[in-house]
Amino acid sequence: MIKVVFFDLDDTLVDTTKLAEMARQNAIENMIRHGLPVDFETAYNELLELINEYGSNFGKHFDYLLRRLDLPNNPKWVAAGVIAYHNTKFTYLRTVNGVRRTLLELQRVGYRLGIITDGDPIKQWEKILRLDLDPYFEEVFISDYLGVKKPHPKIFEKALRKMKVEPHEAVMVGDRLYSDIYGAKQVGMQTIWFRYGKYANRELDYLDYADFTVDSLEEVPKIVRGLNDEEEERSDSEVHAD
Amino acid sequence: MIKVVFFDLDDTLVDTTKLAEMARQNAIENMIRHGLPVDFETAYNELLELINEYGSNFGKHFDYLLRRLDLPNNPKWVAAGVIAYHNTKFTYLRTVNGVRRTLLELQRVGYRLGIITDGDPIKQWEKILRLDLDPYFEEVFISDYLGVKKPHPKIFEKALRKMKVEPHEAVMVGDRLYSDIYGAKQVGMQTIWFRYGKYANRELDYLDYADFTVDSLEEVPKIVRGLNDEEEERSDSEVHAD
Questions:
Q1: Do A2 and A170 form a contact (C-beta atoms < 8 A)?
Q2: Is this entry keyworded Hydrolase (chains A, B) (predicted)?
């Protein structure tokens, strides 16, 4: 009997990748508008390479971009990048299509909800609070707060323990076959792979760990109800067998 | 003959103190709204003390606030503070009353303009660009970029050299008697003290270094014109004396 549905945050509940892309493009455009003497393609590709090397939470993207482009350290250009980046992030932060309908439907039927996500705790909470997703979820588990990352079983075990459910009473929904699906399956949870965004065609080696694959989150409530109906039928027939 | 007018940035062109106050109050309110179990007065006063000790550019105000209040490290509360703080800063960033009229008037009459400010270069440029003050100014001199702070003569000397004027051809306008007025006077510039904000009654030991005191920036163009008229009269009478 499923009691709890866990969701991943980035690119499952929040449209993170699309937003980051827009924010980075607007940053480069604004830097050029304020005098950065490089064409858009060159600067943007250099920024992507840099993020690839230093990670997306690195705090000095635009300073390093200037160094990589052999340009002088000009705080005006950096500020232009920072402004456009933040403005975009705050203005265009969106949930993935269907998120609210899905969460409402799950709550209406009585499922308890949680978030299991990697990332910086304050940045993750910023997205949750800015989108007012907070009231839907009983608990939020963030790797950098707990000291363990998906797909390590410990983060899933901690979540199950805190929500007081057994693995077979929980479903994990996420866009990453490796961290979300393989991770949750290891501890015995049911898994729904949300085929979305930049991981829609990656990590396919772990496809076997997905019990279900969906292209829209709105399929999730039906699947979860289906799992419980199956179980009811099974226990019904067991009763009859007695 | 005055050719250049320099302005300080914080609390002279930009209403920084008022904005920071609002941002901090909104941050505390939002933290309480999201569950911070402390009353507003206690939390706000603790935050002010903390900022007083660690400085306003310290990056972990809200984390440290929780520690000081003996509360657990809760990233949700920190995020609530960060969100409200940033939203306020971006939404309510304003120039001081009369700034644009003053700058336009000075430009119209043909004065060249510059900014001489302390602080973090990227944060200072953020304010300048967000308020679109950039086009008014020929040069911006920021202490943390140049490696020397007001009132050290070097920052004023660098500014004069870059703008290619002599000290007596320049006026400094600022809200701080110590860093702006005493600093500029040391190198021989004319000085206008803008008596405004939290420094309106401080550092009065340095009052003697102010050639003029104004309560509104809109008095600046008249004063600068007055300085040049005086000079013209003087050189006229010198001609007559020949």
A1: yes
A2: yes
Report the DSSP beta bridge partners of residue A4: A112, A170
Average of per-residue pLDDT across A90-119: 95
What are the residue ranges spanned by the domains of chain B? Answer: 4-15+95-241, 16-92
Contact A55, A113 (CB under 8 A): no
Q: What is the CATH number of domain B4-15+95-241?
A: 3.40.50.1000
Whether A192 and chain B come into contact, CB under 8 Å, resolves to no
Q: Under an 8 A CB cutoff, do A79 and B142 touch?
A: no
pLDDT tens sequence across B89-109: 989 999 999 999 999 999 999
User: Which of helix, strand or coil describes residue A117?
Assistant: strand
- Name the residue among B36, B51, B126 with its Cα closest to residue B81: B36
| Cα gap A225→A191, rounded to integer Å | 14
* % of residues, chain A, pLDDT over 70: 97
CATH domain A16-92 topology: DNA polymerase; domain 1 (1.10.150)
Size of chain A, expressed as the number of residues it contains: 242
Q: How far apart are CA A145 and CA A33, in angstroms?
A: 39
